[in-house]
Amino acid sequence: MDVGILGTGIVAQTIGTRLIELGHGVKLGSRMSNNEKARAWAKRAGKLASFGTFAETAKFGEVLFNCVSGMGTLSALDYPSAADLNNKVLIDVANPLDYTRGAPPTLSVCNTDSLAEQIQRLHPLLHVVKALNTMNVDVMVNPERVHGPHDVFICGNDKDAKDTVTMILMEWFRWESVIDLGDITNARGMEMALPLWLSLQKKLGTNIFNFKIAR
């Protein structure tokens, strides 16, 4: 499958590298066609890797990942045409982190709205599924890095899109427990888990941990 990844940072590159290892074609996208980080990644990643603009990446991908920084996501999605977004699945892994006041960051949107909902409102024919935003990227693509059972959460309005994302998580990334929280409004809680995640990261001194829901 051809996968378009919006973004060129460590999250985009790590997901892209894992997908290429699995035999998928991957294009990283940015605002500029000659992004140096994307160019260097594609050279390292091999013949299945490519890079281009956000518009080119959206056109390329049968499935899309949003790995743009949360505050830059909405403007990034202005670049592709509606025809290259409509009816595609967008896996939104971004968090609306605001570093304008320094670290630790705050959330630019929370409580009554979420980044995923903002994307869905602006692109109503795009099938947005929130997923993978509650963990470090190494855990996203290699859940076995965390010992014992643990969970990944998803939410979205379209059942078929969530089925597709569940397949990707379980068959490609080898997740054993996917919890569907319901419609896209549940992205509020998923994104608001980030302050807790940051506190745990500081306390534990590692990025390699995750949430497990005990029943």
Query: From the coordinates shown, what is the CATH architecture?
Result: 3-Layer(aba) Sandwich
CATH homology group: NAD(P)-binding Rossmann-like Domain
Mean of pLDDT = 95
First-to-last CA distance: 36 Å
Choose one word for the global shape. globular
**Class per helix and strand makeup:** alpha/beta
Q: Largest beta sheet: what is the strand line-up?
A: 3-2-1-4-5-8-9-10
Can you count the beta strands? 10
What's the quick description here?
With 215 residues, the protein is α/β, with parallel strands linked by helices. The protein has helices at 10-21, 36-45, 54-60, 73-76, 115-122, 137-141, 159-172, 187-192, 194-204, and strands spanning 2-6, 25-30, 49-53, 63-66, 89-92, 97-98, 106-107, 127-131, 152-156, 178-180.
Descriptive overview:
With 215 residues, this protein is of the alpha/beta class. It has one domain: Rossmann fold (3-Layer(aba) Sandwich). The N and C termini lie far apart (36 Å).
Primary descriptors:
two-stranded antiparallel sheet; alpha/beta; 215 residues; 19% strand; 8-stranded mixed β-sheet; 9 helices; Rossmann fold
